[in-house]
């Protein structure tokens, strides 16, 4: 049993032993703490068996297919394109979202406003608060990155101008 699994098993055992807690399971409303503990142990063992079967199947597949790799070989370029499109969309829509957030609107209120304006996500779906939060996070991240780049450029230019002044004298 792995360390994490042992910790989980000990955690459930401790909960079941706690006299102040009375567990009820929807599928087994009459189960007592012993049965719950037993089912938890069996579930843990099944997770172990699934892990072993998966690892074994992967080993067999790799042995039969030594020149092949699992997964999409183009995933890096696909993800790069997705991230680029997401950033592009976020920078476009952030011009609408940021002023609303600066007015004190919640993510839910902003999502509702965007949906009322018939704006959609890149996939044509309606907005949810988590998407608004992600756009704001990207916008703030890009803003911070731009400020850092501007500061570095300013310091570099200042350093170069000081160097040129020293050469002139």
**DSSP summary, beta strand count:** 0
- Based on CA atoms alone, the radius of gyration comes out at 28 Å
Largest sheet, in brief, is: none
Q: How many alpha or pi helices? A: 5
Shape: extended
Number of domains: 2
Helix content: over 70%
Low-confidence runs = none
Q: Which class do the helix and strand fractions yield? A: mainly alpha
Distance N to C terminus: 74 Å
Oligomeric organization of the protein chains:
single chain
Provide the succession of SSEs. Answer: HHHHH
Q: Beta-sheet strand percentage?
A: under 5%
Mean pLDDT value? 85
Explain how this protein is built.
The protein is mainly alpha-helical. It has 2 domains: 62 residues; 82 residues, no CATH class. It contains 5 helices and no strands. Helix 1 packs antiparallel against helix 2 and helix 4 crosses helix 5. The longest helix has 40 residues. It is extended, with a radius of gyration of 28 Å.
Give me the secondary-structure topology.
Elements: H1 3-17, H2 33-64, H3 75-102, H4 107-116, H5 129-168
Helix pairs in contact: 1-2, 3-5, 4-5
What is this structure, in a nutshell?
This protein is mostly helical and 169 residues long. 74% of the residues lie in helices and 0% in strands.
Output the keywords.
mainly alpha, single chain, extended, 169 residues, 0% strand
């Amino acid at each position: 049993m792995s360390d994490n699994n042992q910790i989980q098993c000990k955690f459930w055992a401790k909960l079941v032993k706690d006299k102040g807690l009375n567990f009820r399971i929807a599928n087994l409303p009459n189960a007592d703490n012993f049965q719950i503990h037993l089912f938890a142990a069996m579930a843990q063992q099944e997770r172990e068996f699934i892990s072993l079967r998966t690892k074994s199947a992967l080993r067999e597949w790799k042995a039969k297919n030594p020149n092949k790799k699992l997964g999409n070989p183009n995933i890096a370029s696909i993800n790069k394109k997705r991230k680029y499109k997401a950033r592009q969309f976020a920078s476009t829509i952030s011009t609408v979202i940021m002023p609303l957030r600066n007015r004190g609107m919640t993510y839910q209120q902003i999502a509702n406003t965007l949906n009322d304006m018939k704006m959609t996500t890149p996939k044509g779906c309606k907005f949810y608060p988590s998407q608004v939060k992600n756009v704001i996070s990207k916008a703030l991240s890009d803003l911070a990155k731009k400020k850092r780049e501007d500061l570095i450029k300013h310091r570099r230019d200042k350093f170069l101008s000081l160097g040129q002044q020293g050469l002139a004298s």
